[in-house]
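User: These chains co-purify. Model them together.
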Amino acid sequence: MEIKIMKNILDRNQNKAEEVRNILKMNKVMMVNIISSPGAGKTTLLEKICGEMATTFRIGIIEGDITTDRDAQRLKRFNIPIVVINTEGGCHLDSHSIYSVLGSFDLEKIDVLFVENVGNLVCPSQFDLGETFKLAVVSTTEGDDKPAKYPMLFREAKAVLLNKTDLIPYTNFSIDNFRSDLKMINGMVPLFEVSLTRGDGLPDWFEWISTQIRISLIYSI
Amino acid sequence: MEIKIMKNILDRNQNKAEEVRNILKMNKVMMVNIISSPGAGKTTLLEKICGEMATTFRIGIIEGDITTDRDAQRLKRFNIPIVVINTEGGCHLDSHSIYSVLGSFDLEKIDVLFVENVGNLVCPSQFDLGETFKLAVVSTTEGDDKPAKYPMLFREAKAVLLNKTDLIPYTNFSIDNFRSDLKMINGMVPLFEVSLTRGDGLPDWFEWISTQIRISLIYSI
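Assistant: Joint model of the two components:
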């Protein structure tokens, strides 16, 4: 019974996701659905992105949170359009909630819309929001076994950002184990090993994400 | 519509949870439902508990994992009864899955059953498994804002274990912010600040959990 219910929910979500995707295409807006565990660094990533790229690209942000607007508060100093979606206990964003806030943005004046999903490595990966692609963020302090134990997200993601590499010396994290597990799950996915607080590895990441936005602006993929 | 469906699922879960609870009571088994984000230290906690307490109490473990039996593999050296539940993509354990594996244990020979839930700070807190109580595990590297951002679990938990205190010097984690947020959400909850890898703070924790087991054996709460 529950499987059938879940299928209905996912079907309805998928239909609305396609509507969202069409609206974004028409407006040449790339949408990135950022997914991670709580505290892996999604908001810090957005801070770095805004700091580095807000003069080059027109950025918008959708902040998904169960409750509070703390993440949005951290980002408002960048003076870019931000909309908060409080899920009120819900464990993921869905395409209906994204659709309902699209009207709050002047999409003609946005190149890229970053969606910070609810902190959860499981449920968000099952819901298409109409995004251009999913970005997986994971931190070294969570352990090197996360791709093997939570494969769905890593299979779906177009890129993986491994954060907190500066903390590796203080943990038992094995970068070789992490890389080889990830390779088995998604052999071709680009992996960016970064320390968001220290800045290590960020130039490669910025080059990659900038290229994605430029491609989107030209081809509206 | 989805709210009604969710209510039905939760009602059915609650009924089965009461059945589980009765079975455990009859057998004087305490059950602890351990909930955390991925990589906060649930399995390491179980390793420490088995190492310290397996000669004093008769321990059983239920390992909830989306896929793989990696956590159970880490625990099998302790020679205690372990059952793995693979949720196959499901984001939490429910009372039906617990009920279905209870028969695998000789409950008359068990004092305490630890359940390692799926790594997820959101969904598991909404599903009563029939446990005696929920234990929240959270790590400093996730950030000090987790109780405020994910209040459900911290409201429900009978105790909170803050792990990875050894990494505080390398992060911007504020123990004062963490404590004051937690106090607002659940003023009376005992907080154990520990480093599972280094052993800091563990004596207090072992004393507390041992007392809970002893109370359960006497009063079968």
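The longest helix of chain B spans residues 2-26.
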